[in-house]
Amino acid sequence: MSNAFADLPLSDALLEAVAGFDAPTAIQAAALPSLLDGADVLAQACTGSGKTVAFGLALLQRIAPQQLHPQALVLCPTRELAEQVAGALRQLAKRLSNTRITVLSGGRPLRLQRQALSRGTQVVVGTPGRVVDHLRRGDLDPAELKVLVLDEADRLLDMGFADEVGEVVARTPRTRQTMLFSATYPEAVATLGGEVLRDPVVVRVDSQVADDVLHQHILHCPANRRWETVARLLRHHQPDSALVFCETRGDCERLTDFLQSQGAAALAMHGNMEQRDRDDTWVQLANQSVQVVVATNVAARGLDLDALTLVVIAELSPDPASHIHRIGRTARAGRRGLAVSLVAGDREAHRLARIEAHLGTRIAPHPPLPASLPDFATPRYRTVLVLGGRSRKLRKGDLLGALVKDGGIPPAAIGTITLRQTTCAVAIEAPHAQAAVRYLRRGRVKKARVRAVLL
Hints:
By secondary structure, this protein is of the alpha/beta class.
């Protein structure tokens, strides 16, 4: 176990990339020595514990930048998580020369992904179905793969990707290093580990967020007042950003409509939405342009928002492991968070009993909500979406400079800028958002015209 990144055999470029970090998290300190030594590792730790940095540093340490073929492959259960992981790896690799990271996931054009692979890439991050598709087409050649990472292995199996994972593993070299990371450790994960890992080092740190960081509560309510109770909880806590979980897509849409009718800036996110719409919803939550996203389990996996302070579970899941993943969306990276679960009727009381047995503790009741509550607040920001991103060599500084210098937008009015492959989302304080869009539509960024819309 290492108590400082400087004690690890990392390249100077990677040490520079983590120079602003605090000491390694528990999972990083426990897993990195073995990962950097080339061992297969089975690691279990709670969500938000720093697993991506752990396997990211290890795989980037092994990359040969001068060789433009896939050397590391990371499998993720969802498109959103694949994008999040790729973003984190790009941050770690920013000091590494000529290191390319490509995302292969559904909801994106195959043609662009094939072009990226043909130009050469060292790291591939993808979802199992799309990765298998590229393998079968011959676009992705894993012959010289050094590292295979199975991220959120329990979710990969829960979502029915066992066959695809098996096909990917079978096509990779037997000499590869394999890293399996999971928040929970059901029997299926143990079985998978036995099939894909060679003499693994097993690393386990707390699989639940510490009680002093994540506060959990339950709130009993009648089933016919579930949505009203969700709204009252949100009005009581007034979070800048909150995630509300529903069991079905229909409930997700209906609860979103109800919250909007109550004055909340709320959006839905579920698997039946186009990927573009899911991306736009996520970025508005990250930019604090909306207060609430109402989501199903599948859609919310991979939402990595350090500043998310509140999770509301509108209906308890029958699966305790799913509950752990839900509450793990808040209290990330050592920040404090609150998770409140609604319990309505005997069926959900039984689900609560199973969850508490799995956690090994009782969940405290939420204090009674006051009779009088404030209205929903108006979000501080609006999100301006610029149709141009990394593919057009656009940088955050280009947009910032254009908006401030030429567009007359006060620097303090500009919040988070999220740069993606084909778009860039800019959070701008609401009073200045329309002016920013008007400038972008008639002005220029890097001497080029851009298209911009207000989400």
